[in-house]
Write a structure and sequence with these properties.
alpha+beta; Alpha-Beta Plaits; six-stranded antiparallel sheet; about 25% strand
Length: about 170
């Protein structure tokens, strides 16, 4: 797969059985007829970033293949989040059963009211960078002019992000 075909999603959960929520989210992505999960990072635990008066998150990054255009991928992800149990929050950064973000779609850069690709704030989020580094340390993030491993090394985020679950080579939980 060429670099311009790499598609990365970040998953997070801090409500209920966080591990099962992530697993169910991945199962639902795999069940979609136009989305195929190809890689999974280990699972990390981290404190909530903005609204700190909530439970800690489990986070991971996956790589997928899809034939969907970006807006259709976003719509599919939103439908999956809803099926897994995510409620539409009126406030940002609230607890969530599952949160699935498009981190990057190859070399594509989109800046619209609907989509921000690559995802905004990547360089400030160690909870995204650590799992992403597990599966794609040499991926060059569009607009950053740096590899995932370099962005992780240089992030100012000093939050406590620790591995809590090792995902084996077959990607099994």
């Amino acid at each position: 797969m060429s670099e311009d075909q790499h598609i990365f999603l970040g998953l997070g959960s801090n409500v209920g059985n966080r591990y099962q929520n992530l697993k169910f989210g991945i199962d639902m992505l795999n069940a979609h007829p136009h989305i195929w999960v190809t890689e999974k990072s280990h699972v990390y635990q981290s404190p909530a970033m903005y609204n700190t008066d909530q439970d800690e998150f489990y986070n991971m990054v996956i790589e997928i293949d899809t034939n969907l255009i970006p807006v259709d991928l976003l719509n599919a992800i939103k439908a999956i989040e809803e099926k897994v149990g995510r409620k539409v929050e009126k406030k940002r950064n609230m607890p969530r059963v599952v949160d699935i973000d498009i981190l990057a779609i190859g070399r594509l850069q989109i800046h619209s009211g609907l989509l921000e690709i690559p995802h905004a704030g990547i360089s400030e989020r160690k909870f995204v960078l650590k799992p992403w580094n597990d599966i794609a340390p040499k991926f060059k993030v569009p607009g950053q002019n740096a590899l995932v491993s370099e962005i992780l090394e240089n992030t100012d985020d000093n939050s406590d992000v620790r591995m809590v679950l090792i995902v084996d080579k077959e990607g099994m939980f």
